[in-house]
Amino acid sequence: MAPQIPSEQWAQVLEATGKPLHYKKIPVQQPGPDEVLVNVKYSGVCHTDLHAIKGDWPLATKLPLVGGHEGAGVVVARGELVKDVEIGDHVGIKWINGACLSCGYCMRGDEQLCQSATMSGYTVDGSFQQYAIAKAAIVARIPKECDLEAVSPILCAGITVYRGLKESGCKAGDTIAIVGAGGGLGSLALQYAKAMGLHTIAIDGGADKGEHCKKLGATSYVDFTKTQDIVADVKAATIDGQGPAAALLVAVQEKPFQQAAAYVRSKGVVVCIGLPADAKLSNPVFDTVIRMVSFKGSYVGNRADTAEALDFFRRGLIEVPYKTVGLSELQKVFDLMEEGKIAGRYVVDTSK
């Protein structure tokens, strides 16, 4: 029997850039021919959602906007062309909501680079609502044994850092520095890195975040609020003192991006994931050339990365540190995020 789908639902709606969210009832949409309607049970809260609210990225959001792109739920309706997703399947609403699947990027498995890609909670309504739409070909397939509450942050944070670690080129036994390690992305990056056989230098600020990082498997911790020379301290944390093979930057400030190239070892890789507003990269050309340092951007992940990241979680190798609040309390989460008071991840329960 098909599930009963209401005509209205609760949602958090951004009606004007930079203004508080409105918790209100809005209509439930119907899926198009190649889409599914997902009853979102839980949604992780990402720093990208805060950028969408503030409008400080060089990419306009739709307005009014329902944010969110870490939505885990159950398929309750599907379009007539959808054959490989069933009613009752557990799926995830990701940042990439849809793509053309026929351009050169999509054909190579880089659908996140598709010029026609739509973004959940940015260019189309996302998962801070009880029922959300997504393209059936793009939704994450969540194994039934996975807890939807705990898995929701994997749908962006997990996939993103997992892809970034792959982009670093690090092999088992290598050391990688994770900058912003105590936050939502960093907390997962530490665990994925450990599961992949990497040693990690966690970089963040404060003793509490240091303890948090150590519990998640960090090999060592550098507190940027106390160090007198972060380059020397990061290098000293490696076995040979030459610095880590790579740095994974999930920080939300510009300064760490300027520091990373100085402490990675020669032929090291700086992987940029975090997106501080208006930030720029700068490094001396001479040093970059003679030390053969590489800079890479890593942008979310594709469908294969999604399946792999979820499999690490399914096997119990990744534990998401999170706190759950009701969807009605979402604005409080963004207030804490603005104040830099979040360790780990927040998840909203759409039923509250």
Overall description:
The protein is an alpha/beta fold and 352 residues long. Helices cover 26% and strands 25% of the residues. The chain contains eleven helices and 18 strands. Strands 3, 5, 6, 9, 10, 17 and 18 form a seven-stranded mixed beta sheet that branches. A six-stranded parallel beta sheet has the order 13-12-11-14-15-16, sandwiched between helices. Helix 11 (330-338) links the parallel strand 17 and strand 18. Helix 4 (157-168) crosses helix 10. The longest helix has 12 residues, at 157-168. It is globular, with a radius of gyration of 20 Å. The two termini are 26 Å apart. GO terms for molecular function: alcohol dehydrogenase (NAD+) activity; zinc ion binding. Belongs to the zinc-containing alcohol dehydrogenase family. Its EC number is 1.1.1.1. Its cofactor is Zn(2+). Keywords: Metal-binding, NAD, Oxidoreductase, Zinc.
Quick synopsis:
With 352 residues, this protein is α/β, with parallel strands linked by helices. It has 11 helices and 18 strands.
